[in-house]
Design goal:
Distance between the termini: 30 Å
Shape: globular
CATH architecture: 2-Layer Sandwich
Radius of gyration: 15 Å
Helix content: 25-40%
CATH superfamily: 7,8-Dihydro-6-hydroxymethylpterin-pyrophosphokinase HPPK
CATH topology: Alpha-Beta Plaits
Structural class: alpha+beta
Largest sheet: 6 strands, antiparallel
Number of domains: 1
Strand content: 25-35%
């Protein structure tokens, strides 16, 4: 695990998890549990699991969820920790939107706005993706309004567990 720095205050963040290679169900469940093992991080809530057809991606169906965490890690260090979890799960970044054993994205990090080459917060496409919106609605209903849900209603997704 990489060396990390910490922020002074605890920040409320939302992390989207997804996988569509190997045992996707096990990978997502493990990642959601492992979020709580990150330094100075506590998992507040986890959504149900959802099965979704690939959207702007390829391969088999995805298993998706969203976790609400509280962390003292700063956003870049949280990203490094999430990418380390992906690597340990066998993630290979062969091309954009390639099938994956695990994908972890920071959707929100407090009220922060970040636009750097390696990190954009809020996630730039969170509003376009049913596989983010539906689980996010479970753990943060104040973040998802009916118009957002209406805009993604044609995407294939179902609550799985």
């Amino acid at each position: 695990m990489p060396v990390v720095t910490r922020t002074r205050e605890t920040v409320s963040a939302y992390v989207a998890a997804g996988a569509n290679l190997g045992d996707a169900h096990a990978a997502v469940c493990r990642a959601l549990q492992d979020l709580g093992t990150l330094p100075q991080t506590h998992v507040e809530a986890v959504s149900s699991l959802y099965r979704s057809a690939p959207y702007q991606a390829q391969g088999p169906v995805f298993i998706n969820a969203v976790a609400h965490i509280r962390t003292r890690l700063n956003a870049p260090d949280l990203l490094i920790a999430l990418q380390a979890m992906e690597y340990l799960a066998g993630r290979v970044r062969s091309h954009v939107n390639a099938p994956r054993t695990l994908d972890l994205d920071i959707v929100f990090y407090g009220d922060a706005r970040v636009d750097s080459p390696g990190l954009t917060i809020p996630h730039p496409r969170w509003m376009e993706r049913a596989f983010v919106l539906l689980p996010l609605q479970e753990v943060a209903p104040h973040k998802v309004n009916p118009a957002l849900l209406h805009a993604v209603e044609n995407q294939q997704i179902e609550k799985w567990l």
